[in-house]
Amino acid sequence: MKIEFTKMQGAGNDYIYVNTLIYPLPNPEELAVAWSRPHTGIGSDGLVLIGSSGKADFSMRIFNADGSEAKMCGNASRCIGKYVYEYGLTRKTEVTLDTLSGIKTLRLHVEDGKVDAVTVDMGIPAEIHPVDLGEGYPYREGIAVSMGNPHLVIFVDDMEQVDLPRVGPVLERHPLFPDRVNVEFAQVLAPGRVRMRVWERGSGITMACGTGACATAVASAYTHRCPGESDIIMDGGTLRIRWAGEGTRLFMTGPAEKVFDGVITV
Ligand SMILES: N[C@@H](CCC[C@H](N)C(=O)O)C(=O)O
């Protein structure tokens, strides 16, 4: 059976997108693993399914490269906004998306018929609290934030000193997070400018993480490092995050790009 897909990236965080209205996939966990592999698959950070919803315009399911399903993905939600508009699935520029962490609203920024950026209402960040990682770990303190999915933000003075391939997998499986956690290292460069690198649960090092950028902005404001609006600068690009503080909704703005269309046989 032939399946059409589109590879897309948001700030360098790349996923394989399949329109399940046309191609329902019975085994997305297995396909996410096989297709994400760089040499023998398509190569990606995971697999995203676009579907219908009784509660919103469309639905999103997101699978990491190890096949685990996540409840939310910031970069994929922006890419879905571009996909549904540019492939003619909608003419709306305000689109609702049903995710496992609730309904998100996407505002599409359209220029000459193309979506070049998307603002996502990411909802109200939750479970914000400092954590003590304990002795025996490479870092002692962090800030936990839920953006629908779990994050641990660790502030550092010098990003160059962070050995991400070594410490990322250890912290992802810290016992404080039984469902594993996405780990962000953050260095405040200036007011409103934060450098961030991420180790994603289920995918490892990625060039950007949308929910991770949101969690970083939240942790920066919560610790009085950077209140208000901030640019989160990642290896693959920058996202602008607007958040007025605890109990308020957070808005993420950033790019969405198509890489290529393809057909794969399963
Ligand atoms: N890259 C994503 C987050 C994807 C899911 C994450 N790895 C998890 O398991 O929670 C983003 O842009 O938010």
UniProtKB/TrEMBL annotation:
The lineage of its organism: Bacteria, Pseudomonadati, Bacteroidota, Bacteroidia, Bacteroidales. Its EC number is 5.1.1.7. GO terms for molecular function: diaminopimelate epimerase activity. PANTHER family: DIAMINOPIMELATE EPIMERASE, DIAMINOPIMELATE EPIMERASE, CHLOROPLASTIC. The active site is at C73, C209. Homodimer. It is an enzyme of class 5 (isomerase). This is Diaminopimelate epimerase. Catalyzes the stereoinversion of LL-2,6-diaminopimelate (L,L-DAP) to meso-diaminopimelate (meso-DAP), a precursor of L-lysine and an essential component of the bacterial peptidoglycan. Pathway: Amino-acid biosynthesis; L-lysine biosynthesis via DAP pathway; DL-2,6-diaminopimelate from LL-2,6-diaminopimelate: step 1/1. The record marks H151, E200 as: Could be important to modulate the pK values of the two catalytic cysteine residues.
